[in-house]
Design a protein that fits this description.
It is a single chain. By secondary structure, the chain is mainly alpha-helical. Helices cover 81% and strands 0% of the residues. The protein contains 18 helices and no strands. The termini are far apart.
């Protein structure tokens, strides 16, 4: 008879301890929230007095105590933006919309920060969220103009890369903003032809455009030798046709003839120094054969031309390693201004990276101290 009594006592004791533990956790949670609130108020006070660094520290402590302190994330994001830490500002605004997905201001700020960091596809999504939550936003016209440009450029990039379905999606978004854009309508017609949505127009003459169109048909069916012949004829007909050189380069790549492809990409950059994809392909090639200096030069050119997220992710590791290494060399030589510029570049290609962020913060403080001396 004793055993059931003992078991019952053990269960009662366990339930009592569990209940006490839950109450204790609630008290601790409440206490931490109160501490977080205190840090937040300190941060606001520092902010009003113009002490941004002190405000940042206070808001960070508030978030340590209460990770869901929306106001602390919100003001910390603006502090980081004010101090020109775009990666950290992006992280905090992302936290704001995680906690409350309806805060339009945060989406708008994210759009601006993504745009400034070259993350164009993320910028598009953020600006679209602004108009989704607030269709008659006070900056609607400005946002639509930005979306028009971003979607058009993204569509052109996809088109040049042969990513026709993605190009079509981007161009359709452009027409939603400006339905009267004839150049976009023509591009969509071309894409529909390539995708087989409409019947291809008959080849009437053998001018460069017709030769390219004919070559594209062979290219899309995997008949690369025949396609190369057509593209070569197109280049002979119009040596400055970027499209002819581009398709010829792609066809060479499909055949595994890398050096010939590289020759075409080099010709493209001579005709159009701002051709993003040609610089990207050249950078990849130089990187693959160990010509790091040439690769960095091409990748820096790509970065200046606002690449897509996909391309940025591919070139980021190479550029980041280069910029970070250069920043550390300058730091060790106490050339803090140069180090600052290098770490800023590192964060441009890898926003929010903790190592580069910490080093940038360090050199900025050292520069501030030097300025006060």
């Amino acid at each position: 008879m004793r055993r059931p009594i003992i078991v019952g006592l053990v269960i009662c004791l366990f339930l009592s301890l569990s209940c006490a533990s839950t109450k204790r956790e609630k008290k601790i949670s409440k206490a931490r929230k109160e501490v977080a609130s205190g840090y937040y108020e300190n941060g606001r006070a520092h902010l009003k007095e113009g002490f941004i660094i002190d405000a940042i520290r206070a808001f960070e402590k508030a978030i340590e105590e209460n990770p869901d302190n929306l106001k602390a994330h919100y003001y910390l994001a603006f502090c980081y933006k004010d101090r020109k830490y775009p990666g950290l500002a992006i992280r905090e605004f992302q936290e704001v919309v995680r906690i409350n997905p309806k805060i339009t201001v945060a989406y708008y700020q994210l759009g601006d920060l993504y745009l400034g960091s070259g993350l164009n596809e993320e910028a598009i999504l953020a600006y679209e969220k602004v108009l989704e939550h607030k269709p008659e936003h006070e900056k609607k016209a400005e946002i639509e103009t930005t979306l028009f440009t971003l979607n058009y450029n993204l569509g052109v990039t996809h088109y040049n890369n042969g990513e026709y379905a993605q190009a079509k999606e981007s161009f359709q978004k452009v027409l939603e903003i400006k339905p009267e854009e004839e150049r976009v309508k023509k591009l969509l017609e071309e894409i529909d032809e390539i995708l087989g949505v409409t019947k291809p127009k008959p080849v009437v003459t053998r001018k460069a455009k017709d030769l390219i169109d004919q070559g594209i048909k062979y290219y899309n069916f995997g008949q690369y030798d025949t396609a190369i012949t057509e593209f070569q004829k197109a280049v002979e007909s119009d040596p400055k046709s970027v499209k002819a050189h581009l398709y010829l380069a792609w066809a060479y790549e499909k055949k595994g003839e890398k050096k010939k492809a590289i020759g075409e990409y080099q010709k493209i950059t001579e005709i159009d120094p701002n051709h993003l994809d040609a610089h990207y392909r050249l950078g990849k090639y130089y990187d693959s054969v160990g010509q790091k200096a040439e690769a960095i030069k091409e990748y820096e050119r790509v970065l200046s031309l606002k690449p897509s997220k996909e391309k940025l992710e591919k070139i980021s590791p190479v550029l980041y390693a280069f910029y970070y290494e250069q920043g550390m060399k300058a730091y060790n030589k106490k050339k803090y201004q140069e180090a600052k510029e290098r770490f800023q570049k590192a964060l441009k290609v890898k926003p929010g990276d903790p190592e580069a962020t910490e080093m940038l913060s360090t050199v900025k403080m050292l520069l501030e101290e030097k300025g006060r001396e």
